[in-house]
């Protein structure tokens, strides 16, 4: 017989997306390491991407999936800039703890 496509229900995707977003948000609030904070921002962006893909799939339209490609490109640029900033701050201050960067003066 023909195989049936197993589609994950929209509400399950949205629950997972919400859980990922909350995990990322709590990570931003509780962690002080700049690298971990960047990873938490990426988790939040991926949660938004998952929601876009889920809504796009449920509507039968590919526009949400196209938008995710642009969001991934922006996220890649954000990671590159964020890591460069973290590297420069580490070279100047010898730490990546965000509490140490109250002022960006040398």
Walk me through this protein's architecture:
- Helices cover 74% and strands 0% of the residues.
- By secondary structure, it is an all-alpha fold.
- Helix 1 (10-30) runs antiparallel to helix 2 and helix 2 (34-59) packs antiparallel against helix 3.
Contiguous low-pLDDT stretches (5 residues minimum) are none
N-C termini distance:
70 Å
Residue fraction in strands = under 5%
As a whole number of angstroms, the C-alpha radius of gyration is 18 Å
Mean pLDDT: 87
**Largest β-sheet summary:** none
Overall SS class = mainly alpha
Backbone shape: elongated
Helix-strand sequence: HHH
Total DSSP E strands: 0
Count of helical stretches: 3
Task: Give me the secondary-structure topology.
Blueprint lengths: L9 H21 L3 H26 L3 H31 L13
Helix pairs in contact: 1-2, 2-3
Short summary:
The protein is mainly alpha-helical and 106 residues long. Helix content is 74%, strand content 0%.
What descriptors fit this protein?
0% strand; 106 residues; 3 helices; mainly alpha; single chain
